[in-house]
Structures are given as C-alpha cells and as structure tokens.
C-alpha cells in the first residue's frame, strides 16, 4: 500500500521519499495486524449462516414429513418412497451444497438484501429441479405433499432466518469512538485536539479525549506513557464526535469501520483510523 497526497476527501500521504516505507509499515501494523482476526470473524459469520441454513432445511423437511398426510394431494400411481425420514438428510445436504455453490455464503453476498435472497431462490429452484429429475430417472416417487411442502416451507424460512440474522447485526450508533489511528501531520496529535471526522459520507466535528498508547511499528511495543502521536506514528485513541455515527469494528466492515481525520482550519487530511470493537 502506498500513501500519497490527495484532496481532503481522501488520505494525505507522508513527505516524498517515505511513502513506500510508511505505507508498508502501516499495512503491517494496522491492516495486517487485524488480518487474522478479520479472517477468523468472516469464517465465523459464514459458519453461523451455514449451520443456520442446514438447521432450517432440516426443520422444513421434518415439518413437511409430519403434514404430508394432512394435505389433500393427488398421489402418482407408482408407490411413493415409504422411508421418507431416510431421504430428508440427502435432500437437505444437496440443498445446502447448492446454496454454497450459488454464493449464498460468500461475504459479498451476505447481508445484501435482494441479491442474497436471489441466491437462495436460485439454489432452491435448482434443488427442486434436481430432485424431480433424479426421481424421474430412477423411477422413484415421493409424496407430492412432502415435496411441495418442503419448498413452500423451506424457502420462506431460509429468507426469514437471513432477515433475522441481519437485523441482529446492525451497526452501532455511538458518539464515542475507540480507534487505531495513523497520524500524518507534522503537528502532533494531542488530547483535546479538535478535528473533523469523515465517516462514510458524513462529516462531523470531533474532540480527542485521550491517547491510550503509541505503537512502535518496529517492535509492536505499546508505549502507554506517550501522550501524543507524531508524523507517521500509529496509536490508539478515544474521541467524542458531535453527532452519533453508525459504526462497525473494522474487522467486520471496512467501510463503516474506518474514517479519516481532517484539520478544520486547513481542510487537509491529517490522519486515518480503524474503529476497534
């Protein structure tokens, strides 16, 4: 990563000749330091959704198995499969696999509303088509009430479960920010400093409450005695913004978990921050 001098809507880099070294160290101590945590978090989120969908599909299969005799459906002439309990698991596994292949568990697909539901619908249609084709080719039959009920119950349940999961994963609304900051101004950052905070599309006033520590980019030692950050130094700080912001930890969302600091007097970007949990 290479930092460069640009407008106040973006980052301003360090003096010429030091961009590469400072950028590399910042990536190593900032972004790279959180890579393992972010990857673990992403895998955890994907794992939760996989387990959730598998449980939902199994529940839909059990419900359809229970109500199959209570729904007046004309059955085909060939005798249907008697041991339905034995076919629920293969169907659920095939459905779950198609959800995975259709990208329903990719981080780009999770939490994206219509696009996420579209992936679930495509995987469900493919499952239904594969199931009916397989039964036709093998000359087996399942109770129609079971097959129709499985998808009538399963598809809405999958979408509702995703909706509920997303509702519990909303950004936090707060005025107090705890963040790791890379300071990029010759004037040191000190407590009580007044700055502009640009977070996503919002620009609000902020006051630095405290400098918790300065991070040595060579040894990763935390200097807790330091009460200021100099040019190209990285540290942890807490600040209070004038208006509430909707934020996420940087490890979960790089957009709502990052911000830039702007000097209100000159309009120059003087720092970049990553919000901590």
Task: Explain what the structure shows.
This protein has two domains: 38-167, no CATH class; 171-275, Translation factors (Elongation Factor Tu (Ef-tu), domain 3). It is 40% helix and 22% strand. The protein has helices spanning 19-31, 35-67, 85-101, 114-137, 144-167, and strands at 172-183, 194-199, 202-215, 222-223, 234-247, 258-262, 269-275. The protein has a six-stranded antiparallel beta barrel with strand order 1-5-3-2-6-7. The longest helix is centred in the first third of the chain and has 33 residues, at 35-67.
Distance between the termini: 24 Å
Main sheet: strands, sense, barrel: 6 strands, antiparallel, barrel
| Range of helix content | 40-55%
Shape: elongated
Averaged pLDDT? 77
Quaternary class: single chain
Rg, Å, rounded: 27 Å
Strand content: 15-25%
Helix count, DSSP H or I runs of 4 or more residues: 5
Which helices and strands, and how do they pair?
Layout: H1 19-31, H2 35-67, H3 85-101, H4 114-137, H5 144-167, E1 172-183, E2 194-199, E3 202-215, E4 222-223, E5 234-247, E6 258-262, E7 269-275
Antiparallel strand pairs: 1-5, 1-7, 2-3, 2-6, 3-4, 3-5, 6-7
Helix pairs in contact: 2-3, 2-5, 3-4, 4-5
Keywords summarizing the entry:
277 residues, alpha+beta, Elongation Factor Tu (Ef-tu), domain 3, 2 domains, six-stranded antiparallel β-barrel, 5 helices, 7 strands, elongated, disordered N terminus
């Amino acid at each position: 990563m290479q930092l460069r001098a640009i407008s106040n809507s973006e980052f301003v880099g360090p003096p010429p000749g030091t961009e590469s070294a400072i950028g590399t160290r910042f990536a190593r101590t900032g972004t790279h330091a959180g890579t393992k945590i972010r990857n673990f978090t992403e895998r955890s989120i994907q794992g939760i959704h996989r387990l959730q969908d598998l449980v939902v599909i199994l529940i839909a299969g059990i419900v359809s198995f229970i109500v199959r005799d209570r729904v007046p459906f004309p059955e085909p002439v060939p005798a249907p499969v008697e041991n339905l309990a034995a076919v629920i698991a293969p169907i659920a596994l095939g459905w779950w696999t198609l959800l995975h292949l259709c990208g329903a568990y990719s981080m780009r697909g999770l939490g994206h509303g219509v696009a996420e539901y579209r992936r679930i619908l495509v995987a469900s249609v493919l499952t239904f088509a594969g199931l009916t084709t397989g039964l036709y080719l093998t000359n087996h039959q399942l109770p129609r009430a079971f097959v129709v009920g499985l998808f009538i119950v399963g598809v809405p349940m999958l979408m509702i479960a995703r909706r509920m999961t997303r509702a519990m994963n909303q950004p936090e609304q707060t005025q107090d920010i705890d963040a790791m900051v890379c300071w990029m101004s010759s004037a040191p950052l000190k407590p009580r400093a007044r700055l502009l905070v640009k977070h996503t599309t919002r620009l609000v006033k902020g006051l630095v409450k405290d400098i918790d520590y300065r991070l040595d980019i060579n040894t990763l030692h935390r200097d807790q005695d330091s009460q200021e950050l100099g040019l190209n130094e990285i540290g942890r700080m807490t600040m209070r913004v004038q208006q509430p912001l909707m934020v996420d930890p940087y490890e979960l969302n790089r957009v709502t978990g990052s911000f830039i600091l702007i000097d209100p007097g000159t309009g120059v970007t003087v720092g970049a921050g990553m919000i901590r949990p």
